[in-house]
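Give me the 3D structure for NADP-dependent oxidoreductase domain-containing protein.
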Amino acid sequence: MNSIVTKCPKVSLSNGLQIPILGLGTSHDGGYSHDAMLYALRECGVRHIDTAKRYGCEEQLSIAVQESGVPRQDLWLTTKLWPGEYGYTAAKKACRDSCSRLGVEYLDLYLMHWPDAMVPGRSNREVRVETWRALEELYNEGVCRAIGVSNFLVSHLKELKEDCSVVPHVNQVEYHPFQQPEELVEYCRQEGIVFEGYCPLAKGQALSHPTILQLAHKYARTPSQICIRWSVQNGVVTIPKSTQNERILENCQVFGFSLSVEDVDRVRRLHSDMKLIHLSWPLWKGLSS
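Predicted structure for NADP-dependent oxidoreductase domain-containing protein (289 residues):
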């Protein structure tokens, strides 16, 4: 069985830390499997795990990490701050609570989950600044080895740069063949912000596209491997999600081949600005978690 533990390239953050370019994502609503997580850690050599307070699986993930036997220092653990806990005091408490649930003394990466706070009577910018100040302090204290944001657009990043002292180390955004925010990718690269992409398979919708199928045939790979390889080959930190052992193994086996420049461009031309996640959705409205 091919392990990615020695094959998976790493991407350098602006503070010198290195994040594995391929990780395993989790999600809410059935997006976590204990057995699959153990399989990923033990059998596939996965060392980068992405989760969030919102997904409700931090405690379960803690158990899997302990049972896996993988040393803490060999893992890259990312979790996220939910907008319901934005604000200086709440953010600090939420971070330490996530550490407690995960059974760790520090996080490798802590992200603000969304740019909008939806706090009555206060601007989103004001709340973002206050929240980011808390993350900066957590970073300086060593509770978070790196801090970043998720779903932030160029405008949000520019405001944060004006208002704060630490530029986000990472921006995690939807990225797949049909959604390629090149302006945002380029801005992040100019500012030294590592671009991380979720939904690399477009929630499965990319797997049946004729171009992806043609490339899968050409390279004798699966459609999901074509999508993930394309993403990492673009230098994007990529976190496919799966709760099935065979899919996790398949998704990890993307470092033994490369797409040609022409084929990378073929996939690039599939961009249609199709968004699976919309920033305008009030996903957390009325939620405290």
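Residues 280-289 have pLDDT under 50 and may be disordered. Let me know if you want a second pass.
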